[in-house]
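User: tokens in, sequence out, please.
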């Protein structure tokens, strides 16, 4: 890991739909921030899988005009270790990746979980983690992740255990794709808002 670079890894099952869209949506949002590097992978990625038309529709709904077919990537202990933040789509994914690389536990969240934590993470929390205005951009982003992790310890467990998950729509009907998009889109925005707040702490310095 390069200290001046903030690496984000999005993970789902096949690396076709949810993680790929999250990667591209965040990459577009922060295209002008060279310190943020985004990748995606799957816990059971398989070569030769095609991108369904419904995935392209979800991508368009989230502002990603083009989602190209590419070779899917299998998550590995190395790629997990290289990430400053691992965004998984379900609690089961989180369990799988943490079992593969236990050192990432504090910086691994379901994307909906981090979006929820972002809403209660204060600027003062980020600063106390080392993300003050004098820190570089990557350091402020890492501090935001650390602040959210501290907030997680004080968060009440959701009454519905699936509330932190983004459902897998692959192979399902359009209604399921729509439900998945309605869970993923606001989660991406919540994570993006946390990133932006961390970056803004250095403005004017």
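Assistant: Sequence out:
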């Amino acid at each position: 890991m390069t200290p001046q670079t903030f690496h984000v890894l999005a993970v789902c099952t096949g690396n076709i739909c949810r993680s790929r869209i999250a990667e591209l949506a965040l990459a577009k949002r922060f295209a002008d921030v060279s310190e943020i590097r985004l990748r995606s992978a799957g816990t059971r990625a398989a070569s030769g899988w095609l991108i369904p038309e419904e995935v392209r529709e979800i991508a368009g709904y989230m502002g990603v005009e083009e989602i190209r077919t590419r070779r899917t990537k299998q998550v590995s202990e190395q790629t997990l270790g290289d990430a400053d933040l691992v965004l998984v789509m379900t609690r089961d994914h989180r369990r799988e990746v943490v079992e593969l690389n236990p050192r990432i536990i504090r910086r691994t969240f379901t994307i909906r979980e981090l979006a929820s934590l972002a809403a209660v993470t204060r600027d003062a929390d980020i600063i106390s983690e080392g993300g003050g205005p004098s820190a570089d951009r990557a350091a402020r982003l890492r501090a935001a992740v650390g602040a959210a992790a501290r907030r997680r310890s004080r968060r009440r467990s959701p009454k519905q255990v699936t509330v932190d998950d983004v459902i897998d729509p692959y192979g399902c009907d359009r209604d399921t794709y729509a439900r998945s998009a309605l869970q993923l889109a606001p989660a991406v925005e919540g994570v993006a808002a946390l990133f932006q707040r961390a970056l803004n702490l250095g403005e004017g310095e």
